[in-house]
Amino acid sequence: MSTIELQNLQKRYDDVRAVKGIDLTVRDGEFLVVVGPSGCGKSTTLRTIAGLESATDGEILLGGEVVTDRPPKERSVAMVFQNYALYPHMSAAQNMRFGMKSVGDYSTEEIERRVDDAAETLDIEDLLDRKPEALSGGERQRVAIGRALVREPDVFLLDEPLSNLDAKLRVQMRAELLKLHRDLDATTVYVTHDQTEAMTLGDRVAVLNEGRLQQVAAPQELYDYPANRFVAEFVGEPAMNVFTTGLRHHDERVVVDHDGFTVTLPAADRIPATDDEVAFGVRPEDISLAANCPSGSETFTATVTVREPLGELLLLHCDVGGGELRTKVEPRSEIYPGDTVELGFDDDRLHLFDIESGEALYHSAPQPAGTSVEPSDAVPTQSR
Ligand SMILES: Nc1ncnc2c1ncn2[C@@H]1O[C@H](COP(=O)(O)OP(=O)(O)OP(=O)(O)O)[C@@H](O)[C@H]1O
User: Fold this and answer.
1) How far is C-alpha 12 from the chain's CA centre?
2) pTM of the model
3) Which of 92, 234, 253, 366 is deepest in the core (most CB within 10 A)?
4) Which residue's C-alpha comes closest to atom 23 of ligand 1?
5) Does the Cβ of 47 fall within 6 Å of ligand 1?
6) How far does the centroid of ligand 1 lie from the alpha carbon of residue 194, in Å?
7) What is the mean pLDDT of the chain?
8) Is 38 in the pocket of ligand 1 (CB under 6 A)?
9) Stretch 278-299: mean pLDDT
C-alpha cells in the first residue's frame, strides 16, 4: 500500500506562506497531477512530501505511516526534477547507479540488474555510457526518470519533468509516462503549471492556487463542473468566458441579464437564492452561430474583433455589450473582424459563480451522482 496522505500540510518560508493547509489523499497506484499558476506552492508541496523541505505544520503519511519528520532517504519516494539534476561528470549509467547508492546498501549485481531493467524500460540501453552533455533533452529526461526507477520506490514525485522539452517531444514523453505508469502502477504525484498536461495525464487533478487546494477531481469533471471561478478559468484553452451579469427571477424562470445578451437558465429550481449580480460562465465551444442553434433558441448579436485560425477550428474574439467573448466556430467560416455575428449559448453548459467568493452556484448540466469533490480533498468554502 503506498497511499500519500497530507493532513493540514503547511509550509512557511519566513513571512511567505507557500502552503496554507492542504488536506489530500493520493490513492494507491493513482496518477495525481497538481496544477496551478507559478508560485502557488506546487513544488513546495512536492518537496515536502519527499522530505527535501520540512513541514511547518501538519502531517505527511506514506502507506499509512507518519513520515513528517523522517529524512528523505527514509521515505520510499523518488523524485524527478525539472532540470533533471544529473551529474555532468558521470555517465548515464553512473547517474542511475548513484540513485541507488544514495538510499542504501545493495550488491553490485542488484544495482546492475536494476540499471539494466530501467534502461530497457526506457529504451536507453545504447546511451548508458554517455555523459549528460552528449544527450539530447529528451534523452536526459529519460536518464533522470531511470535514476528514479532504479530505486523501485513506492511513490514517484515528478516536478515539471517535461517543461524543458520542445512541444513535440513533450507530447511524445507524455504518452510514454502514461505507459510507464500503467506498467509500474506506482503512486505518482506530478506537478505542472500546464493545464493540458494535467488534463491528459491525471487520473485526478488537484488545482492549487495561492497555497490552497481549490478542487480535486477527474479531468472531465473538473472541466464540466468547476468548483469555483478560479478552476473554471484556469482549466480549458482558451479560458471560459465569464461575465458579471444581473440575475432576474420571473415567476418560475431565472434570466441572466447582460448588456449584450439575455439567457433563460434551464432547471431554475436548482439555482440557489442569490444576489442579483452573479458571474455567468460559458466555454468558447458552448457558443454557436445562430444558424447551428436549435430553432427557438435565444440568440444575440456580437461584433468580431479578432480572428484566429487554429487549424482544427476558428477562434473568434467578439465584442458583446462592451465585454469580450471568445467562441470556437467551423475552421473555414468566412467571418472577419468588423462582421456582426448572431450567436446562441448551449443551454446545457452554462455556469453561475458567486460574485464575491467565486464559488460555483449552478451548472446547467446536472452533476452525475458520486462525482462531487470529496469533502476531505478540498478547502471548505468559508476558509478559502
Ligand atoms: N526557499 C525558499 N525561500 C523563500 N521562499 C520560497 C522558497 N521556495 C519557494 N518560496 C516561495 O514560496 C511560494 C511557492 O513557491 P513554489 O516554488 O512552491 O511554487 P510553484 O507553484 O512550484 O511555482 P513554479 O511553477 O513557478 O515553480 C512562492 O511565493 C515562492 O517564492
Assistant:
1) 23
2) 0.91
3) 92
4) 39
5) no
6) 17
7) 91
8) yes
9) 93
